[in-house]
Structure to design on (495 residues):
């Protein structure tokens, strides 16, 4: 359906007399519930009717936000949102790659087969679970379900040539799933897009780009534009909606308008030498194939040996984060301006992190802390103690149980996650379970409040990190503490 037709259908719905009466009744119910909550001095009910859900996904986003105490971050919009929400400082994804992490999000389960670890996992398996997926459950609960940008692995949900023709990646659960109109020839080019329609040439295009252009010259500016227009249309609706908005940055290439690079003219802190070295126990180490293989770099430069180039790459990543922060800000402003905040749950989720030289890695695709750790920020109307950070260990598989709980949506009994409502009500509430992670060749990890264990079953070796004494993962305690390994291995299997 075209954007114009979508608006027409919304306008037709909203002009119906019965719908207007229904809105009046709903407004009265909402006002009544709010008054009762105020009089009783208790936490406000989300709303008398089903709350809407705005779900924002951000690709390759580390926890480099000002709200988390990162000094060089220029993320005013995400920081302001955190002040009204619950930010989880220790949220961990299940798999450190885009498609498989999104598979765990949409399916609500840990990977159990090799196909669940790869970027094609959603397309290969969704026929088995689509109706029980995150959008599928909301669709069955009577919600309109819309997806814009990159929500599953393929932007717009198509998987054929250049990601622009059927088959669908997650069929039957989205009323509309689209990418914005733009100058790029197809969604695959948009995913790795440079300014004004330029497409990546693998191995030849640069890893970074700075152009003095408008936000809409890059894909995320157009995603924000479409998201704002869609929220305007949705504000005329009475039926509850689940609207997923997926931004591309800061995924490679690190490309953004010049004004966001200008925010980062001071040096970005580097890592100590011991944290930047290739580990001597490399069960999860890799040679940064995406960064080095899919993009070109100036002759003779390598961030592993060239401190100036490493600084340039970190600056470009930070600029890309600032750029996507501005686009998220536009969407949140539209939500506020259209008076949708009072009955909308907002979730902002990073699909995984990204190493910027830790362990001599420039990328994700490993089981170290900053590849698996990413932001998870949740806000619902009337949430107590907004702005307080939760340090509980939480996981991506917890998203479906949490949203189902908040929205009173029936969910399957066999999901692996737990609702985060206890931590949303009380940020000091402890974790209910550890976080598990998975990668190729059977690699597994478990993260507790203090420890991370990584197991490489084929090489029969382990890595054990103690974050109480070593936040940068420079010391492997596996040989020294076999009892701890046994304890964590048992926890890994039970969790």
């Amino acid at each position: 359906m075209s954007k114009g037709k979508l608006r027409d259908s919304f306008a037709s719905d909203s002009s119906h007399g019965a719908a207007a009466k229904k809105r009046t009744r709903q407004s009265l119910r909402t006002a009544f519930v709010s008054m009762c909550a105020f009089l009783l001095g208790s936490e406000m009910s989300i709303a008398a009717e089903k709350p809407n859900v705005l779900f924002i996904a951000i690709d390759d986003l580390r926890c480099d936000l000002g709200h988390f105490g990162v000094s060089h971050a220029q993320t005013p919009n995400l920081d302001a949102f955190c002040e009204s929400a619950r930010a989880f400082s220790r949220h961990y994804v299940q798999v450190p790659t885009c498609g498989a992490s999104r598979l765990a999000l949409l399916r609500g389960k840990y990977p159990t087969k090799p196909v669940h670890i790869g970027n094609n996992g959603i397309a290969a398996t969704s026929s088995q679970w689509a109706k029980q997926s995150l959008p599928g459950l909301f669709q069955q609960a009577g919600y309109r379900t819309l997806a814009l940008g990159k929500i599953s692995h393929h932007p717009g949900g198509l998987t054929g040539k250049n990601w622009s023709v059927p088959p669908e990646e997650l069929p039957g659960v989205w009323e509309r799933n689209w990418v914005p109109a733009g100058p790029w020839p197809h969604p695959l080019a948009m995913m790795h897009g440079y300014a004004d329609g330029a497409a990546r040439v693998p191995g030849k295009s640069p890893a970074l780009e700075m152009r003095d252009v408008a936000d809409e010259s890059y894909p995320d500016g157009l995603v924000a534009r479409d998201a704002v227009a869609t929220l305007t249309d949705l504000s005329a609706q009475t039926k509850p909606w689940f609207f997923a908005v997926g931004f591309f940055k800061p995924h490679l290439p690190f490309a953004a308008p010049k004004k966001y690079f200008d925010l980062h003219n001071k040096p970005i802190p580097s890592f100590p030498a011991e944290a930047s070295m290739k580990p001597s126990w490399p069960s999860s180490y890799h040679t940064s194939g995406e960064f080095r293989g899919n993009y070109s770099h100036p002759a003779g430069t390598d961030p592993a040996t060239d401190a100036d180039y490493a600084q340039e790459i970190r600056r470009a990543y930070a600029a890309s984060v600032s750029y996507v922060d501005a686009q998220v800000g536009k969407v949140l402003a539209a939500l506020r301006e259209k008076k949708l905040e009072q009955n909308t749950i907002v979730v902002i989720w990073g699909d995984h992190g990204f190493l910027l030289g830790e362990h001599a890695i420039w990328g994700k695709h490993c089981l170290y802390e900053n590849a698996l750790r990413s932001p998870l920020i949740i806000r619902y109307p009337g949430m107590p103690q907004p702005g307080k950070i939760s340090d509980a260990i939480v996981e991506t598989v917890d998203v479906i149980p949490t949203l189902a709980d908040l929205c009173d949506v029936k969910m399957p009994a066999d999901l692996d996650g737990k609702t985060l409502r206890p931590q949303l009500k009380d940020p000091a509430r402890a974790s209910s379970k550890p976080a598990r992670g998975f990668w190729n060749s059977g690699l597994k990890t478990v993260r507790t409040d203090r420890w991370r264990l990584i197991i490489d079953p084929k090489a029969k070796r382990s890595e054990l990190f103690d974050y109480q004494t070593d936040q940068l993962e420079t010391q492997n305690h596996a040989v020294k503490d076999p009892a701890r390994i046994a304890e964590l291995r048992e926890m890994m299997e039970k969790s």
Q: What stands out?
A: The chain has one domain: 50-434.
